[in-house]
Specification:
Layout (H helix, E strand, L loop, with lengths): L1 H33 L18 H7 L6 H31 L3 H11 L1 H4 L2 H11 L6 H8 L13 H28 L2 H9 L4 H29 L3 H6 L11 H11 L3 H32 L2
Helix pairs in contact: 1-13, 2-13, 3-8, 3-10, 8-10, 10-13, 12-13
Length: about 300
């Protein structure tokens, strides 16, 4: 019986583990192999090992320059993470002050952008940013402000993409933080209110420490999600103007499917995987530090 009870959790996890191996681990292992080969779309079996040549070509690339590519990816990923964390956490705290019925209804509405396809979101925001008939320029025109080319101006283009992605991705942060707030004992907050604690002290001393593990998880998800966004950027700007919104994920698509350089595209996949692993490691370290504080 003891052996059976120990095996039960693994049997329940088996379907998910099999999917994880087939859909995640095997493709990443394949990308790791191809990153050190000269594979192309027309030749993916009879390949030659070329060492780190693909990575060297990426670093030496001029269109776009590799430092610009890394900087744009980080700016977009970090900007998206900050925006989604702020918006999602703020909305979660506002919803937590409402009754359960209103909270459930509004939560369902606010999660709609998160479940929409990235292509649909991209085309929607492309229309909103349209310099001639877009919603934003129409509103600005009512106040006498001239139209702005949101997706073709340097600096503004990456900011416009971040705003669109924050609108699309804040739902997941909202869901995670809402769950953490729902699991927080209400008697602690009520006791603090009875003792005369203000809103700021309650947030700083009670709410934030209780939701910190969930907040760290939301931060990890937002950062990794921001670094790997492809469809929204491809639909809205195609990496323009002049590669100002080109990210690692977009360049990986160009190299692999437009230029047929599977090896170089795989090398970018490896870089993104390394970034994701590094962020996950930082999350585990932060979570362990928070766990030690509560022991």
């Amino acid at each position: 019986m003891a052996t059976k009870s120990r095996a039960t959790p693994w049997l329940l996890l088996a379907p998910a583990l099999i999917l994880l191996v087939v859909l995640v681990l095997v493709p990443y292992c394949g990308a790791l192999f191809y990153a050190f080969t000269d594979a192309t779309l027309t030749r993916i079996i009879d390949v030659n090992l070329i060492g780190t040549a693909n990575f060297e070509q990426l670093v030496e690339s001029r269109l776009p320059p590799f430092p610009t590519l890394i900087t744009t990816t980080i700016v977009f990923g970090v900007g998206t993470a900050i925006g989604t964390l702020f918006l999602g956490t703020t909305l979660a705290m506002i919803l937590h002050t409402l009754s359960s019925n209103w909270r459930a209804a509004l939560l369902a509405v606010l999660l709609i952008p998160y479940v929409m396809a990235g292509v649909i979101i991209g085309y929607t925001w492309r229309l909103i940013y349209d310099p001639q008939a877009g919603l934003i320029n129409t509103v600005l025109g009512m106040f006498g402000v001239g139209g702005v080319d949101w997706l073709t101006e340097r600096g503004l283009s990456i900011l416009s993409l971040v705003v669109a992605n924050v609108w699309a991705g804040s739902g997941l942060v909202l869901l995670v933080i809402s769950a953490a707030l729902s699991n927080m004992p209400r008697n602690i907050v009520l006791a603090a209110q009875v003792d005369g604690a203000g809103l700021g002290r309650i947030l700083r001393r009670i709410v934030i420490p209780n939701i910190m593990p969930a907040f760290l998880l939301a931060t990890l998800i937002a950062l990794i999600g921001g670094l790997n966004v492809f469809d929204l950027i491809f639909v809205m700007t195609h990496g323009g103007p002049i590669y100002q919104t080109e990210t690692l994920a977009l360049t990986m698509y160009r190299l692999t499917f437009q230029q047929g350089e599977v090896g170089q595209g795989a090398s970018l996949t490896v870089l993104l995987f390394i970034f994701s692993i590094a962020l996950a490691t930082l999350y585990v370290m932060g979570w362990q530090r928070e766990a030690r504080r509560w022991k």
